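Before relying on records like the one below, remember that each one covers exactly one chain. Contacts with other chains, cofactors or solvent are not represented anywhere in the record.
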Amino acid sequence: MSDKGFQPYAVMLDLSGRLAVIVGSGAKSLRIVRTLLAHGAEVLIVAPDPIDELIEMEKAGELALETRPYRRGDLDGALLAFAMSGSMRIDDAVAQEARECGVLVNVQGDAAVSDFIVPSLVSRGALQIAVSTGGAAPQIAREVRRGIAATYGPEWATYTALLSEMRVIAMERQGMSAAATAPMIEHAMASGLLRRLADGEVLSAAQLIADAVRDSAPTA
């Protein structure tokens, strides 16, 4: 990848059952491992001196761990690779193998030679908000992330889940089309649902559907 005019293309990847290989061990790799596992990836760590947390995760069956230096062939079958060994020579070798094998690689601290970058992320259940400067100013991305996290509280996870459940119930159980569910969901949103959830009110998708049907019924 060249950094000339670099403008990353934002996508959301389905990592379920896909292999991600991390070459290196440390606090940053641990954060990446936890995120990858949370999104369903199969994780392989290659590091001669892994930190204790990764060793414990391997013992618990959460990931695979090779306690040795990187060697060519470690990226076989991978979708993603993270080169974060702390050695430029090793990271360059990982990046070279990745490109030859068609594996997308992130080289720690070097967006210009990476195929992808890891954005600052705010997660509220199914709602994910990613912030990135394309590696130009990560500090700005972190600052913006903090502002988003303060604005979008934990109630947004329940909010998103309820609206999604309403749609599923209406389509699968009541045979409504996707287009027909839109007014019903908009009714729930306009009812002050988010504020009600933030205030601690407990609501169900079935109840919200019933409310929407009742309020849309013609009056005599």
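Helices lie at 27-38, 52-59, 88-101, 138-151, 155-173, 178-190, 193-198, 205-216.
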